[in-house]
Design a protein that fits this description.
Blueprint (H helix, E strand, L loop, with lengths): L4 E6 L5 H9 L3 E7 L13 H13 L6 E4 L5 H11 L2 E4 H12 L3 H27 L11 H38 L3 E7 L5 H9 L16 E4 L7 E5 L9 H6 L1 H8 L3 E7 L4 H18 L4 E7 L6 H13 L8 E3 L8 H11 L3 E9 L2 H13 L1 E7 L2 E9 L3 H10 L3 E2 L1
């Protein structure tokens, strides 16, 4: 049986999320060591006394411990000292997240993004090993001698450059697809939110697709775009990688081409698990809003409080009032929904529709003909038909993206019709 026992080291009692991350990699956290302090110890992150306490525990514990997980960001020198003292592998929070990403990545782009983030994470640690080796110290439990480490550092630099070029090409291809969709009158809606909030499930519900859904952190690392099949609105939904607090800048940077889907969206639907304790909902919503701000999102944000089937109406009302009092709703539309039970999904779609930019109403009158029927079929794909009436001529009331207004008007003229 593979040894998956681990310990957690933290500077505060807020260990829920680090335990969730550890659990998502099937690690069994057998003990947590908390040393309450405002700032990490410069030398070993935790004080020498706490290091000795952990060493004693590792010696006396009846089962072998594979990993020490530090709920924070380790400097290379701190990591080196901890590994050499504890004699087991030490992961900080970022490295644990990257390990999860590595296991979840399936598509080429996701794998490249994860590898780029891993290489950027490793660079300062390899530099530390080179420094230690040249100072005459053993380079550490995770590396060989000086020359191998030197070679690895050069490989990191070369590989990083190559991956960035590959991701640039993928990003340019995605940009071309986006432009083509916009020209076709489609609005782009991004599903954003904390990891495991229900984004992929909502995408499946609205598009009648079967994108893989798993009840674990970061099950989605690649973007998936599908057309909404509910209501007659030309909207493309994109599922994106989930947020999590204190995600290092280089990881966000590595996933830039994926997160860009949120940045350029016409509307962002921010999904939050509303069934959790209100303080946790508040925290996750704040993290998500901060991430959107960091990404430079200027589009309207619609908040979807998901999983309301797990709580009663009174709790829902109290939660919305609580979030509003905390200043997190800030005049944004907030819709309580249940993706699992298909509750209030039409209300969510209405909220999305109200938030669409550059939406204009038009009324067309065109003669009845075969060509007119072909035109109407196209309108159903690229616009929202509010009402259509067949009499001596066809009268169509519609809403569309301003980007395709001229195209609709031109076709109407070709059919000897008029815009009323």
């Amino acid at each position: 049986m593979i040894n998956k026992n681990a310990i957690v080291i933290s500077l505060n009692n807020d260990i829920f999320e680090i335990n969730e991350l550890a659990s998502s990699l099937d690690f069994n956290v057998v003990k947590t060591f908390i040393q309450k302090r405002e700032n990490p110890d410069v030398r070993s992150y935790i004080g020498s006394g706490k290091v000795d306490e952990i060493k004693e525990f590792l010696k006396s514990y009846e089962r072998k411990i594979k990993l020490a997980i530090v709920d924070g960001e380790l400097k290379p020198s701190q990591w080196f000292i901890l590994e050499n003292n504890l004699k087991i592998e030490v992961f900080d929070r970022a490295r644990l997240i990257l390990k999860i990403f590595e296991e979840r990545a399936e598509r080429k782009e996701a794998k490249l993004q994860v590898k780029l983030a891993q290489l950027q994470y490793e660079r300062p640690f390899v530099r530390e090993l080179i420094h230690r080796a040249r100072s005459g110290e053993h380079p550490g439990l995770m590396a060989g001698g000086e020359y191998q480490v030197d070679d690895y550092y050069e490989m990191i630099k070369k590989h990083t450059k190559k991956i960035k070029e590959q991701l640039k090409n993928i990003r340019e291809e995605r940009e071309l697809r986006r432009r083509h969709r916009h020209k076709g009158g489609f609005y782009l809606i991004s599903l954003a939110g904390y990891t495991n909030a229900g984004k992929s499930s909502l995408l499946n519900l609205l598009s009648d697709e079967k994108v893989k859904v798993e009840g674990r952190l970061f099950s989605t690392l690649s973007t998936t775009t599908r057309k909404i099949n509910r209501k007659n609105v030309p909207i493309l939904l994109t599922d994106t990688v989930g947020f999590i607090q204190n995600l290092p800048a280089y990881i966000i940077d590595a996933f830039h081409s994926t997160l860009e889907e949120i940045e350029v969206a016409d509307v962002v639907v921010l999904i939050v698990d509303g069934s959790e304790e209100k303080e946790l909902v508040e925290k996750k919503l704040q993290v998500s809003l901060d991430e959107l701000l960091e990404l430079g999102v200027t589009a309207s944000i619609v908040i979807a409080l998901n999983k309301i089937d797990l709580i009663d109406d009174e709790t829902i009302d109290e939660l919305i009032q609580y979030l509003s009092h905390k200043g997190l709703l800030n005049h944004r539309l907030c819709i309580p929904v249940s993706v699992a039970e298909d509750i209030n999904i039409d209300l969510l779609l209405d909220a999305i529709h109200k938030s669409l930019p550059n939406l204009i109403k038009m009324t067309l009158q065109i003669p009845i003909s075969n060509e007119a029927q072909t035109f109407i079929s196209q309108l159903y794909k690229n616009a929202r038909i509010i009402d259509i009436n067949y009499d001596k001529e066809i009268t169509i009331h519609l809403e569309c993206n301003i980007k395709i207004k001229e195209k609709i008007v031109a076709t109407c003229d070709d059919l000897q019709g008029i815009v009323v």
